[in-house]
Amino acid sequence: MPRICLLALIGLPGAGKSTLCAWLLGQEPALPGRHLVHLCYDDFLDVGPTSSELPYKEQRALIFKLLKQIVAAIRKGAAWPSQVRRTTGGTTESSGDYLILCDDNFYYRSMRYKLHQLSRDEGCVFGQIYIASSLDFCLQANARRSGDGRIPDDVVREMHDRMEAPGSEAWESNSLTVTNADPEVVGCVILNFLNSLNVKPVVEQSSKTGQHPQQVQSLVHSLDLLLRGRIKTLLQGLTQSADKRTVSGRLNEERKRILERFRRNAGGGQQADLNYYVELLN
């Protein structure tokens, strides 16, 4: 029976979630044995000036019902929902696992918890990627949208103020935070994270807080890639080659210290917020 992973993509409008999904759909060779399904909530939510009278919460409930139908179609061979198409994997749905990209803002933790509950009930894997793009970046990207795709700026700002980033709760342990969705910057980190998600289905969490050594090592590798990317960005801001040699040496020594600190904390069960450690490098 194929395994299913429900992946919540968290971020403000304009953060780059759908762009990241489009890139991931072209990365099937880097995600061996997985079929990808992109479920963009905006395709089903009707909240514009000419929207239907169906309340927003009821619209989200219908999307959740659709998601359950997708899981049933994979698990039990039921009819595939007509509103959603299989985005990769061809016609070999009987073989391989599935990664369902749940593309929504998910700015409230309770929104993501419903996905976790569904994962637990259906024996799926649950994961999260929080794209923590800056408010200014999101506002600029949102302004470039046309028609009903553009969200009012005050709505984006309100979402920013209410955003609940992944926390330290056990059910949010399979989480990755990145500061942007540029595949050239974070692509390897995201692919590494997706390939490292636990293959065991969601169960009630035990009292143990320590992380598996293999999971810690995978996170260390992801953090190292992010730190190296930050060093490259910092060095590009320098003009003199002599300064670059000196600063590069200092930054790389700091990178090693940060990685060692991360190993100690993550191995002891503390929540792994990669963005926090990247910001330590200056």
Structure at a glance:
The protein has 282 residues and is α/β, with parallel strands linked by helices.
Q: What report would you give on this structure?
A:
This protein is α/β, with parallel strands linked by helices and 282 residues long. It has two domains: 4-205, P-loop containing nucleotide triphosphate hydrolases (Rossmann fold), CATH 3.40.50.300; 209-282. It is 47% helix and 11% strand. The chain contains nine helices and five strands; from the N terminus they run E-H-E-H-E-H-E-H-H-E-H-H-H-H. It has helices at residues 17-24, 56-76, 109-122, 135-143, 153-162, 183-196, 213-236, 241-267, 274-279, and strands at residues 4-10, 34-40, 97-103, 125-131, 175-178. Strands 2-3-1-4-5 form a five-stranded parallel sheet, sandwiched between helices. Strand 2, helix 2 (56-76) and strand 3 (97-103) form a beta-alpha-beta unit. Helix 4 packs antiparallel against helix 5 (153-162), helix 6 runs antiparallel to helix 7 (213-236) and helix 7 packs antiparallel against helix 8. It is globular, with a radius of gyration of 20 Å.
